[in-house]
Write a structure and sequence with these properties.
about 5% strand; elongated; mainly alpha; two-stranded parallel sheet
Length: about 160
């Protein structure tokens, strides 16, 4: 996403209007949660509400202590939760990709352009960056499942995981 702070601002505005429609007076607390373990929080973010996903439990406990739920609001909150669940729409994005367009090989997760890995003694090695991956074949099979489908033959699996561009 290009700007997670703008996204969270839009979500806060939307949630406040929805709460107002439902006549619920609840605080809307928000934060940008970085899910990637590679995310780096720099000093300039200190004023923003942002943290790694590992801190989510701590922040939730702090917020729940700060704003305890009242027993009388339970029915309203349950109804509101059901409303939110009913609004949920599963995002399905179907792509039409032919098998000829798919790179048929185990690819390096470190190289951005899809460098093909070489198998050597229980590990996959990238000839470009030198990365060693033990479970790269599993990722390739997951990619195959998402792109092609769940039907897989032994011959096609071998070809899909070993053919180069």
């Amino acid at each position: 996403m290009t700007d997670p702070f703008q996204q969270v601002a839009r979500h806060v505005t939307w949630m406040k209007s929805l709460l107002q429609q439902e006549c619920l007076d609840l605080p809307v607390l928000h934060a940008v949660v970085v899910a990637s373990k590679n995310g780096i929080l720099i000093e300039s973010f200190r004023e923003q509400s942002i943290f790694h996903v590992t801190g989510l439990r701590t922040h939730m406990q702090k917020w729940l202590q700060q704003y305890p739920l009242l027993e009388k609001d339970t029915k309203k909150l349950f109804r509101f939760a059901m409303l939110l669940l009913s609004m949920h729409q599963k995002v399905t994005k179907e792509m039409k990709v032919s098998l000829q367009e798919i790179i048929k090989s185990v690819l390096c997760s470190q190289c951005a352009d899809g460098q093909c890995l070489r198998y050597h003694y229980k590990k996959w090695i990238c000839p470009r960056c030198g990365a060693e991956e033990h479970n790269a074949l599993y990722q390739t099979l997951e990619d195959y499942h998402l792109l092609v489908g769940s039907m897989l033959t032994r011959v096609f699996c071998y070809r899909f995981s070993t053919e180069s561009i």
